[in-house]
Amino acid sequence: MLGFMDRLFYAAKAKMEYKPAAVVTSARRAGTTACLDAMMKYLNFSNMPIVPSVYWNMVHGSKPEDVLKDAEGLQIMRTLGYNMAWMLQCLKAGRESGVPMPKREERVWTNFIQ
User: Fold this and answer.
1) CA-CA distance, 51 to 60, in Å (whole number)?
2) How far is CA 33 from CA 26, 50, 63, 77, in A?
3) At what angle do helices 32-45 and 2-16 cross, to 10 degrees?
4) Single pTM value for the model
5) 35 φ, ψ to 5°?
6) How far apart are CA 43 and CA 5, in angstroms?
7) Would you call 28 helix, strand, or coil by DSSP?
8) Sign, CA torsion 44/47/51/52
9) What tens-digit pLDDT sequence spans the chain (114 residues)?
10) Strand (E) or helix (H) holding 27
């Protein structure tokens, strides 16, 4: 997935700006937090509004059907879905009401090597 995201954001980073996004991970046990962290960086670095939930956006299970037993994970996913729908409605209402997009500044690069 990181390889795909490397290519996507290299080729189309400008097209991703201001699109609301969320990252969801699924695993048997460990690794989900590290994966979630790595993928969230793409959203942060691309000026994308990040849709939240009530905890880390992850579910657990050895098989796809096991995820249905992860009550906490399912609640997090439902909340994430509700929040995504709400954010999309808010963005649409803002556009229709004439709320301007954020001012875009030219990127400033700092080089600490003199």
Assistant:
1) 20
2) 10, 16, 19, 15
3) 20
4) 0.87
5) -65, -45
6) 10
7) coil
8) positive
9) 999 999 999 999 989 999 999 999 998 888 889 999 999 999 999 999 999 999 999 999 999 899 999 999 999 999 999 999 999 999 999 999 999 999 989 989 898 886
10) strand 25-27
